[in-house]
Specification:
Elements (H helix, E strand, L loop, with lengths): L1 E3 L5 E4 L3 E2 L7 E2 L1 E5 L5 H9 L4 E3 L2 E5 L8 E6 L7 H9 L4 E5 L5 H14 L10 H9 L5 E9 L12 E11 L3 E9 L8 H16 L3 E7 L15 E5 L2 E4 L18 H6 L2 E2 L8 E2 L3
Length: 288
Amino acid sequence: MRHTLPIAPQFYVTAPQPCPYLPGQSERKLFTALTGEGARALNDTLSKQGFRRSQNVLYRPACSDCAACLSARIRVADFEPSRSHRRTLKRNAALEREATSPWATDEQFALFRRYLDSRHADGGMADMDIFEFAAMIEETPVRSRVIEYTEKRPAPSGGQRGSGRDLVAVCLTDVLDDGLSLVYSFYDPDRIKDGLGTYMILDHIALARQVGLPYVYLGYWVPGSAKMAYKARFSALEVYRDGAWRDLGDPVDYTRPPHPLAVRPITEQVAAITLPPAPGEQPLRGRG
């Protein structure tokens, strides 16, 4: 199915597939291609409307009878770490951050495979090979960075001096005009108690604060999904709901099933999307 606005881009809808977050549910996505000279402006504009990037595609959940998936972001200026967050920062104080160009390496892929095999062996990415991994990292038409976190290699036994650093965690990050967007992250599965996933979010908050960006985009928060529950533990969290960013409030309020009429038809969703303006023009809103 295709829905066309008076100007590019064109939006499409995927066929229903089993939902990876909520048992018994099916998922459907609204998506558009991210190409050409306007890719960066389109990514900036649609990210503010709940879309996420995957390689050269922007997508947003558009399920026919469910609206559980909510895009989430942290207001950097208002964020206050919890005691648990401060413990996570302390545990990982020895890590060093290095931002590099989006270029895949064998070391990254080896860590990625260990992470998937341990944490997501039955997930949709479980069979990714090195070429698919390289595409995930390198196929980006926008300003992206690979953020690597390394730790000094311990000295071997026998009194010899240690050398080099070990790769502990990696995050593929987009730099938006109003924030940092964590596209995908993975880490050493043997260090699960160190909270490396949470640590990378905390470090991105610190990095965004340093460079004056107001938001850190976390992807989707899904109430009722245990694997997404950690996102609700961050203060100053906003979710994109009913066409606007709103304070999360009490996560319990989101566990109630939505009314069937709360899910808007695809044509209405497309018509409500604001597109980036051409130079010298005002932002455009799609018309069905």
